[in-house]
Amino acid sequence: MVKDFPEGFLWGGAVAANQCEGAYLEDGKGLSLQDVTPKGGIGGLITPEPTEDNMKLVGIDFYHRYKEDIKLFAEMGFKVFRTSIAWSRIFPNGDDAEPNEKGLEFYDNLFDECLKYGIEPLVTISHYETPLNLAKKYDGWRDRRLIGFYETYARTIFTRYKDKVKYWLTFNEINSIVHAPFMSGAIYTEKEKLSMSDLYQAIHHELVASALVTKLGHEIMPDAKIGCMVLGMPVYPMSPKPEDVLKTLERDRENLLFSDVQVRGKYPSYAKRLFKEQNIQIKMEPGDEEILKNTVDFISFSYYMSICESTDPSAKAGQGNIMGGVPNPHLKASEWGWQIDPKGLRYILNTLYDRYEKPLFIVENGLGAVDKLVEDENGNKTVEDDYRIQYLNDHLVQVAEAIEDGVELMGYTTWGCIDLVSASTAELKKRYGFIYVDRNDDGTGTLERYKKKSFDWYKEVIATNGKSLIE
Ligand code: BG6
Q1: pTM beyond 0.85
Q2: Ligand 1 pocket, Cβ-based, cut-off 6 angstroms
Q3: Tell me: the pLDDT tens digits for 37-66?
Q4: Are 403 and 409 contacting, i.e. CB atoms less than 8 angstroms apart?
Q5: Which of 56, 229, 321 to mutate to test the pocket of ligand 1 (most atoms within 8 A of CB)?
């Protein structure tokens, strides 16, 4: 029998504005990074202007259909819905003097719609969708002025939504900037031309900005919970060879440096050697160290897979979520080569909790798969996605184990609770949802929504607070 989930556990689902809203120029929205990356955000093609083949321009038309979609989330029993605010709807160029009222109104309506059903919005302030102008004019987060623009944006949305939104995340997968400097850090300069100092300077700016708005958020909304969000990826040594184990530690720290700063309020002691050996010089302004002391209330993370690390030069990196790693011979992979490791979720929950002893929140987890629309015995269109049910069931069983281990977990939101455009490859055929959206990568489709088999399954999981899971 599956162990208990706590009372009031926040069950739900997650999306990001740029992957579902569409309406890329509607109501005064400016262009974001995503509007010029038709092939996906990780080191992909950047076009001078938006091109028709960019699936994100229409997305799943959530901008116009959110009422219908939230109704379906409510039917599943969601307690929380994670989405992001598209920065370029609020400040079309990022450095505008005044916000765009129409953009603000959209999120008023969206959050009201959630609250109508008792669903708490969980809002990512910046999810890979920085206004394009900030990338082109300032080279993104390399420029210290981004801190001010981000602060103005955060102040605007905190003030506007303080009575509607209690849970906030500062940057989606903040640690992904190391691998995807454009998508994650809005850095226009090609990755190959960036020095380590350039990169870590941008990271420093983001960390200062995150701490600054955490402080600001607490001032404006004393009851709010403001979290960091990291790409969670356990790294296992490929062998018990001490060299492999040490390399694993290093790789892990590359990821953990971010949450170490955001949770502990200062750079970790290992950063000193890292910076010295990699010739990284960060320009700090007086007061930065003080600002960093404004730590987050909780740690949220995405979890899709684990990787291995090895010193063996013949070990080749496989495919994965943003950061590649050596494939694990003991695990199977999804159709996109992401290795499936439910126990890795229990492991990372425990390691993060051991390290920080602060509440955790799983804000992304799920299986991207090719789904086939079929007709059920009553003639209704559906998807028999047993593979997704299996994936989520197995991960949630491990979540229950971690809770039993003593981990304090606030909630769990599956990624892409409704089909959306993928971040890495910009495809719609990589589907994560409980709800199928009739749209194809050639742009055809009616945009109609259909419940998959996993819809009723997740509804039952929520209704029973996890008791229906199968060990
Ligand atoms: C995370 C991102 O890295 O992974 C999401 O925060 C993304 O934006 C998710 O969609 C799944 O990745 P993909 O490439 O399958 O969409």
Answers
A1: yes
A2: 16, 19, 172-173, 302, 321-322, 364, 368, 415, 422-425, 430
A3: 999 877 778 999 999 999 999 999 999 999
A4: yes
A5: 321
